[in-house]
Design brief:
Glutaredoxin, single chain, 3 domains, alpha+beta, hydrogen ion transport, four-stranded mixed sheet
Length: 277
């Protein structure tokens, strides 16, 4: 996102956060604003002319606001209407970045609701858990990655799998991600989980172990990684028995392979190198 669009997003985000904080029920307000912003993006995705018009810098800010209000004014609640008005009046680099900004704002609203509800860490863990689920369920992932399927069809499929099993905030975020893929469902969900960790002031460490980690093991590992990296760590863990033992830790682009499978592979490589000489 270019500088102008980042500035526009920050401006609108400030208003969004104020609206949520000052509402009588911040959790409900956050859920409503987030959900309605995603519905707005759905319509912008369907109507290219509208998407271009509300970001057209050749029009006066009041004209862009008028277009946004004419289309969505009766479809959304007053707080969302105010957010959309400010977004329309702001200067975005292009229509694509306005759309991206609204998606980010929708996520921000839902995550504020989760925080107010005391569920932010739970949402983080559930989103990562969904990415692990899809990694293990290849057929489901294939269906969700089908570019010929509509967003509504893919959302309906995922909703049937997760309904009642995760918080409403996790469900809303997951369905939004599946409907607007960036790379693939697994990485997209894990990416949002990493973003939530950052909102909590932590760096995500993806830990793959041969056996499931206990709570005490997770705490001990987090403490050791915090000493290494000098910052708080959120453990995102998954199980892969093929590692045979130990674990593989990924923090950003860095990989620490302490698995038995990794050790065997390195021993074989060393032996092959020795034999070659």
């Amino acid at each position: 996102m270019k500088a102008a669009s980042r500035e526009a997003q920050e401006q609108v985000q400030g208003q969004l956060e104020e609206l949520i904080r000052n509402s009588d029920d911040s959790v409900a307000a956050a859920a409503q604003i987030g959900t309605e912003l995603f519905l707005v993006v759905d319509q912008l995705d369907r109507e290219r002319a509208l998407r271009v018009a509300v970001a057209d810098q050749s029009l006066d800010a009041s004209q862009r606001e008028g277009i946004m209000n004419d289309v969505f004014g009766t479809k959304v609640a007053e707080p969302t209407k105010q957010v959309l008005a400010t977004a329309a009046k702001s200067e975005w680099s292009n229509p694509r970045e306005l759309r991206e900004g609204l998606v980010n704002l929708g996520r921000r609203a839902l995550l504020m609701g989760a925080k107010e509800q005391g569920q932010l860490e739970q949402v983080e863990n559930e989103l990562f858990g969904l990415s692990v689920l899809l990694e293990n369920e290849k057929q489901l992932t294939q269906l969700l990655s089908d570019r010929t399927a509509t967003a509504d069809k893919k959302r309906g499929l995922l909703a049937s799998v997760i309904y009642g099993k995760v918080t409403m905030f996790t469900e809303a975020l997951a369905l939004q991600v599946i409907g607007r893929p960036k790379s693939n469902p697994i990485d997209d969900l894990a990416g949002v989980a990493t973003h939530v960790a950052q909102l909590r002031g932590k760096t995500a460490a993806r830990v793959t172990s041969a056996e499931e980690l206990s709570d005490s093991q997770r705490e001990t590992l987090a403490g050791k990684l915090e000493q290494i990296y000098g910052r708080e760590i959120a453990i995102h863990s998954e199980v892969d028995p093929s590692l045979l033992g130990g674990m593989v830790i990924r923090v950003g682009d860095e990989v620490i392979d302490g698995s038995t499978r990794g050790k065997i592979a390195r021993m074989r490589a060393d032996l092959a190198a020795t034999t070659a000489y």
